[in-house]
Amino acid sequence: MTTQTALDTADQYAWSQKVSVFDAQGFLIGETFTFDDGRIRTSTIVDGVRVGLKWSDPADGFDWTSRTSVYDKLTGLLTFQGVMLDSGVHFSSTYNGGVIASRITSDISDAFAWTSMVHTFDNFGCIASSLVTLDDRRIVLTDYVDGIKSQKFVTDVADGYSWSSKIYDYDDTTGSLLTISTVFDDGSTSIHQPASGPLGQIITLLDSANAFSWTSRATTYDASGAVVAQTRLNDDGTQSITQFSGGVRTQVTWTDGDNGQPWHEKTFTFDAGGRVAGSDVMMDDGRQIVQTYQDGVRTMRTVTDTADIAGWATITQQFDSEGLIASRSVVSDNGDVTTRTYSGGILQEKLRSDGPDAHSWESIRSVYDGDNGALLYVHRTLDDGTQTFVDVRGKAIITGGTQAGVVEDASAVLQAMDTIDVVAGYRGASDFTAIASIAGDNGYGTFTLGTGGSWTYEAINNQTAIQGLNTGDTLTDSFTATTTDDVSTTVTVTIAGTDYFDGPVFAGDVVQAVGAAGSTAPAGHSLDLNTLFTHDDGEAMTYAIADLPAGLTLTNGILTVTDHTAVASAGDYPVAVTATDAGGTSITQSLSLAVAVHNDFGDDFGLNSAETVAGTSFGDTITIGSDAGGNTGSVTVDGGAGADTITFGDGAENLSIDLGADADVDTLIFLGTVENATISNWEQGVDVVDVASVAGWTVSDDGTDTTLSDGVSDITFVDTTGLTDLGDFLV
């Protein structure tokens, strides 16, 4: 066991001294604070859960002498609380599941007209019964239903009155008094309804014998004799004014005339059933405490530091349907916001945010055990994005292999692996969230992660970025590993470059054009694979292609279109090319073989029908004969990307031509008249219209606009780039 003492010599905190006690493993088991205002607070901690809390006020700066709290070891919820006030009154309260269950109040110094009060509460914290023993030995037992007074029994134990007992019956829904039953000393019994007061009058009673806790009580009655208000001046100098409606209390306002209380004014409002609905308390130190209730259960509590003396601006608490705390948010004077969240009254998380950016950190997040509220870890995010996770002992939670390295050209697939661990003694989760496969943050390779912390990394060696490295150059790839309780770390692999690789290196483009498909596709188009692969030693290489499409043949490194009819359709054909040098070193590269459209659709295409021609992402050659799209037909051409050439014969009608937004030179050729044609994605100064072969037609393009004239009609150019005058394109 070790002890650590901290002194606030610079007076930066609300305490002057803090003494912390740790066990042999370094876990906190006790803590004592001496505050600047003289208070002393001592905490007892078991397995990270606070089980005891004691306060003392040796400087007598508060209206209490001592406060003691006991908490459940398994849940961290309050189970007992005892308070001794300076006035000699002692409170002793028990709790069940964090909700008050009973309270015993004793007048030890005999300062009041009662000796003791015992209150019990239901599962929601609403009062269920009260038992009050008065100094004159009368005993008052009151029962409640859902917080509303139901029945009251008064017994004259000392025989100081002419009756032996009284029973008051109340309406369970409103709390209104219904009947009073009195048993007199002579054995007779009287049952009557509450008498109406004097019509429209105010009746004042004085406690000249000091038998009650009040000095005077003034009751106001309306014209029907129903009480509407009551003003009471109490022995302790406070005054209360109660308002009624239909016999049900609606509001009570208290004022502290003698300044003997820590507050100077408080107001309570009640719902139609007589249950408390809200309260507003103004404290002597400038705090304002506002609370709201639903069906007698507290839902919210807000404290505002109106005097600006506490170091914080507001404290807001919210409660669940059972009255247990659900959240607590503190806004500090400097703009920091600290929010605590709870489940079932047990602390789950605390988040402190640096709102004004006054600190070197962005946020500090504390995570607690969901079952007992013991602190598990602290997650700190710094302004530069750095994140740290430490347990309650200040130890880093994730340890082990978070860094690894691979070397360019060490193998066709660069590999690294290691294991990360959870520090011994950590009270949270010890396993990780598994990852079957995830791309690295920079996209060079992929990572895997097992639940036990073992991870692997693979990157293809012949990537352009990796092959571009020289000795001394590096690349990094990383991923985030996370435990099942949300503690994370970054695993980073460094890829080191080398200047030489004794083997083939891919240096080409992953997309290669190999020919065209269709009835007029020319055979014999070829692609030399030696233009795609290099070797530092200049060694000759041999090639093999997996998944080679029909109609294409590989001979001595030359890929040739040998049967154009077998290449039935245009498109991209993925293949895997393996290059091997004389020493047997090889690499495999995935390529996409692009086959373009080269079709002649002949005359009368789309003469009485709607026809569509779709190009590819490479340069296409599309020829359509005379009378295309005539009568009731139409022709739609989507050239796609690439430098396309599209030709129409004479008498073309009802055309829709998309040249593709590709910045490539597209060429439109009209061999005769054109009517009702729309040309989209026309790129001004790039694309070309050719009508020179038609007698009398002219076309001009000066880089800012294009003009067609003589014989061409109904052509509309849309989606143009660099357009200066739309009229230039409507001919």
UniProtKB/TrEMBL annotation:
This protein's GO CC annotations: membrane
Q: Could you state a single Gene Ontology molecular function term?
A: calcium ion binding
- Provide the protein name: Cadherin domain-containing protein
Write out the transmembrane intervals.
Answer: none
Pfam families tied to this protein? He_PIG
Q: Name the NCBIfam families on file.
A: VCBS_repeat
User: Which InterPro entries does this entry report, sorted A to Z?
Assistant: Cadherin-like_sf, Ig-like_fold, VCBS_dom
Coiled-coil annotation reads: none
SUPFAM superfamilies per record: Cadherin-like (SSF49313)
Superkingdom: Bacteria
